[in-house]
Amino acid sequence: MTQSQPLSDQRGREKHKLRISLTDRCNFRCPYCMPEDPVWQPRERLLSFEELERLSTLFVTRLGITHIRLTGGEPLLRKNIEHLVSRLQLLREQGLQRISLTSNGILLPKLAGKLQQAGLDDVNISLDTLDAERFLRLSGGRSTPQEVIDGIHAARAAGLRVKLNTVVIRGYNDADVLPLLEWAIKEDLPLRFIEFMPLDGSGQWSRDKVVSEEEILATVGRSYQVERLAAGKEPATYYRLNEHYSLGIIPTISNPFCKSCNRLRLTATGELYACLFSATGRDLRGPLRESASDQQIEQIIRGHVWTKEAGYAVSQGYVERPITMHALGG
Ligand code: SAM
Ligand code: SF4
Question: Whose CA is nearest to atom 4 of ligand 2?
Answer without folding.
Answer: 30
